[in-house]
Write a structure and sequence with these properties.
single chain; about 325 residues; alpha/beta; five-stranded mixed β-sheet; 13 helices; about 45% helix
Amino acid sequence: MISMVSMPFNPLVSILIPCYNSASWIAETLESALAQTYSKTEIIIVDDGSTDATFEIAKQYARSNLKVIHQENKGQCAAENRAIREAQGNFIQYLDADDLLAPDKIERQIALLGADETEYISSCEWARFYESPEGATFKYQPLWQDLQPIDWLVCAWENHLMMHGAAWLIPRQIIEKAGPWDERLSLINDFDYFSRILLASRGIKFCLGARTYYRSGNKSSLSANISKQARQSQFLSLCLGTATLLNVENSSQTRRTCADVFQRFIYEAYPDVPELRHQARAKVRELGGTKLKAAGGPFFNVVAAITGWKVAKRIQLLLYHYGYGQIALGRRLIS
């Protein structure tokens, strides 16, 4: 544990938790927020019109530094914006209602950033878990290092990597500079938002030892909703995020990286939303083309080498429909 005695300052950290029908997980998430070894925190929970017992469970935890707000269902982005408006902290910690923080996560990141580092944001280690966080395995990723904002985005988008939203600790001034969550978005709303956050900062400081836990296998999560409307949100978010990067640096490298983003959307969305895939192909051409190939698990790659990626994708989707995806494909093409 980091010694609080040696810390140069003691800012308030706001932990923001939007939730919708999260009764199965919200208590565990709140326990992890309340268990932080960094004591100067406030917790803002915004229940976005849940129809289960989420609000009632959250209310049981209400106290002087934990506020529970109920609003009619408006979507995650609206709930995030409401939480930001309510928050008083110098730093913002996002936390989805089914994810967890290690007890010393915030303490470690505050100590790393320091009083004079409010133009930087901090990331940390993260790992997926299914039933219990004890099953999480933390494996090094290329993003687990100090990086400049453009370098971080290029690395993430070229290698199809993500950073768990709860991994960030963000100074309030960067939140305000980047602007609010776009309430038109649902699926991958964070692609747009965190692109703006990163590019509003001077850089990313990676905090070794600070950890978060990302719950996978939750069928009610936004990332599990692949309807036509969700695909429209995904494509819009990709357009917004790539435009943000290109407005800062329009180089051969960033254009190629953005072309990869739209080509990957074509692979993931096929055979659905043909009109959006057509727009994505136009984006790829406009950006100068891409050499990105469709890729998946061992089964997908073998079939694609013989039949082409479109036939392989249709077979993949058929197998998923009948529940054989995890066995037959090794891993998912769409994450």
